[in-house]
């Protein structure tokens, strides 16, 4: 992880993290005490502007997720083609990053870069398992929140895919019409 960990996190930062975690998925009804339990297992991290936090396709070091406390992160995907990156989203305070890799151990699906200096709270997979064993209610609320966030991303991806398909169909119709005109001109 490209993070600098402070030796002690302030109580204010922990409370802010707990409140952001609660706000990340309000439909989970996570209480402040449950959010605090989760945050107490998280490690604070400070990241400098321009730092790549995780890289698309990276298979190592996927066993953590981070809650953005302050700053902005750009998530982009290039499908492995240099120079062809597409910005998926810009994430700010209250956003989770890296949760898919932490949950399934698969390579990172996007490159996340710090657009500003960042304050994060990171949770490792080992700490999530400890949370499940010791505080199942808080763990369930956290995992429900992660599920809600992932569902929102899938819905947004579906919306974008439909828009792209619509544009693609329109472009194909234009190409077909141009091809027909060219054929007529060549046949003369």
Any idea how many domains?
1
CATH class: Mainly Beta
Estimate percent helicity.
40-55%
Q: What's the average pLDDT?
A: 87
Instruction: Report the major sheet.
Output: 4 strands, antiparallel
Determine the N-to-C terminus distance. Answer: 66 Å
- Which superfamily, in CATH terms, is the homologous superfamily? Jelly Rolls
Structural class: alpha+beta
What's the multimeric state?
single chain
Shape: elongated
Total helices: the number is: 5
Number of strands: 8
CATH topology: Jelly Rolls
Low-confidence runs of at least 5 consecutive residues: none
Query: What is the architecture at the second tier of CATH?
Result: Sandwich
Strand content: 15-25%
What value does the Rg take, in angstroms?
21 Å
Q: What is the N-to-C order of secondary-structure elements (H for helix, E for strand)?
A: HHEEEEEEHEEHH
- Spatial sequence of strands, sheet with the most strands: 1-8-3-6
């Amino acid at each position: 992880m490209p993070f600098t960990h402070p030796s002690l996190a302030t109580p204010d930062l922990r409370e802010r993290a707990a409140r952001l975690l609660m706000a990340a998925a309000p439909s989970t009804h996570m209480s402040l005490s449950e959010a605090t339990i989760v945050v107490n297992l998280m490690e604070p991290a400070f990241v400098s502007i321009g730092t790549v936090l995780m890289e698309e396709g990276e298979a190592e070091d996927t066993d953590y997720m981070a809650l953005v406390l302050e700053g902005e992160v750009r998530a982009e995907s290039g499908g492995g083609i240099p120079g062809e990156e597409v910005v998926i989203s810009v994430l700010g305070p209250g956003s989770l990053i890296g949760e898919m890799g932490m949950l399934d151990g698969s390579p990172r699906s996007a490159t996340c870069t710090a657009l500003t200096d960042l304050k994060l709270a990171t949770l490792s997979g080992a700490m999530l398992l400890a949370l499940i064993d010791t505080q199942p209610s808080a763990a369930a609320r956290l995992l429900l929140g992660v599920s809600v966030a992932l569902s929102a991303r899938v819905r947004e991806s579906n919306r974008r895919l439909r828009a792209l398909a619509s544009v693609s169909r329109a472009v194909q119709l234009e190409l077909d019409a141009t091809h027909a005109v060219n054929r007529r001109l060549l046949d003369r």
